[in-house]
Sequence to fold (748 residues):
Amino acid sequence: MIGSRTSRRRFIVGSGAALATAAVGSVFSQGAWARADDPPKKLGFAIVGIGRLSINQILPAFERCKHAKLAALVSGDADKAKKFASQYNLDEKHIYSYANFENLAHDDSVDVIYIVLPNGLHAEYTVRAAKCGKHVFCEKPMANTVDECKQMIDACNAAKVKLGIGYRMQYEPYTQALVEMCRKQVQGKTRLISADHGFNIGGGTWRTNAKLAGGGPLMDVGIYCLNAARYLMGAEPVEVTAQMDQPRDDPRFNEVEASMVFTLKFPNGALACCSTTYDSAGGSRLRIMNEGGDIFLEPAFSYGAPKMWIRERGQMKQAVYPAVDQFANEMDEFSRELMENKPILTPGEEGLADVRVMQALYAAAREGKAVKFA
Amino acid sequence: MIGSRTSRRRFIVGSGAALATAAVGSVFSQGAWARADDPPKKLGFAIVGIGRLSINQILPAFERCKHAKLAALVSGDADKAKKFASQYNLDEKHIYSYANFENLAHDDSVDVIYIVLPNGLHAEYTVRAAKCGKHVFCEKPMANTVDECKQMIDACNAAKVKLGIGYRMQYEPYTQALVEMCRKQVQGKTRLISADHGFNIGGGTWRTNAKLAGGGPLMDVGIYCLNAARYLMGAEPVEVTAQMDQPRDDPRFNEVEASMVFTLKFPNGALACCSTTYDSAGGSRLRIMNEGGDIFLEPAFSYGAPKMWIRERGQMKQAVYPAVDQFANEMDEFSRELMENKPILTPGEEGLADVRVMQALYAAAREGKAVKFA
Fold:
């Protein structure tokens, strides 16, 4: 999955750790991915939920998509849906509500239903989407519980549709290059990973509602640290520990943790330590410590391109890969996987694997003991 | 302890994260610390153990000391001692062996005995030094066990001599500025700390001998992460977790861990996550995540000056403080504390506090459960 993409990478190395922005455009606008046998077709996406992520990231991304296009909007707010339909030249006949969601089954312009709802609604709407006979792309975290994840996978299998989880980093060139470096052990074995991802959250968001979010920063942004440790190690953790804080005097955290630190142990003995927060200004970063050097990304998980430095023998070099619109990129790649009938890079099983570990992390933090996986 | 020094700091702020080296000299050579009432006297230090740290860092540092001078050498290798005595213009009558160590009691040129031996010998030689009636400065970690630390404290109290532990960072201007920023909450409360410190160790060193080292990278370099979390929070952790790896197929790690990840929880709910390694190229770094911004140091714990960036509202600014010779600095400061009869910044109790937590971390890792302190 990684090879064909990373073999095309542009590896530009500069000295020092200056935060120079690489002058690289979207690989899509440059046509770097164009292949003679590319199917010209764009798959139609129904966007379910018109919240901040849809408005600011996903809807604007379609104009940079080669294999995906906006085909429908689903919202509980008809006026809002009409506004964005107008903005993106979508005929109002492709607007749906949660009540008439099942009518998507009869909308031939829709190939994929992209669930961009609060986490606690992912299972219900993925199951309903599958029953419409449409492929499903669902934001991370896949769901609040492993049981919900299983229901989602089962529903998609039963409906013979594909399910992908929106792990945008896994489709992103820096991350794919990093995965390849770890697999090929270009700096020797990876022994330690440290990662942080957090921000100071405002009030009045579903993200601090336990039923809708399934948890606090771990479910929302800490998942990037966990997912990175898993894809970089290419393995599942065998044992985890965690500690969390939920201050009683901060109403934002009546229902979910304010911050968590956690550690992971992998089958080959490699370790990871991670932090995630909703109550401090953390940003995102990732450090991979290998036998012969280390690799540092900051930002590591933001919507813009990561910045990456590789250190060997004390020398730090910046590595530059193509910058992509991460949302256009993941929708294009999922579309290609569907059109070319290839394996899904981030299937439901990948989403479930993270949810399984996150449930273990909450248990470890609550019970004050390491959780081992059988 | 912090205030008088940091109020003199030069706070030079530049944009970006370029790794520019600040053009600042030693505060001592510049006379920045000179005060009219400074006693002109230099205290005499006996250096016990002529290993790499003594040879490369401590002995060369004396020429930059204002309040400390080399007064004696203790070594099991008479030729080596003579060589360095000659190099540093020390009369051979001030050379001692471990057999005649107690003769230091009668060497009036010696005010302080600085223990630079393997960790497992710190307790024995601190007790012997105290019985000579000399003040004791002892490298970190203070000892292998809490019991040993208590013996050391008791011996110094009984002999009415002072005991300081060689936490060079705590005497260093960047670190002191950082402590002050956390105390004053200039970016709001500190909620999360992440820190890494490690390197890929060679063979043939006492540092991987359990009896001499008391443990692996945690005792040697991970202690910097732990100590930083404690001095930045200004509190003791109430609960800790840890995981470690000790690969069976690597003879370097027959007796000690190869790497460890650990988490700490503080009384106010702040969390820390840390990693330490002897089998990957980690370097040293420290991130403090506050409510309103974050502060990043890399290197954080090396012998050279740290590099430090402060981020607020997305803008990263480099902060520059005076660079000092950390070993000259700590010997000078300890000497001043003795001469001015001030409290010791890093007394035996500080060393004991780290050893207590490190013992808990090993227990947490072995037993797979969080260790709570009463």
Remarks:
- Chain A touches chain B through 59 residues (CB under 8 Å).
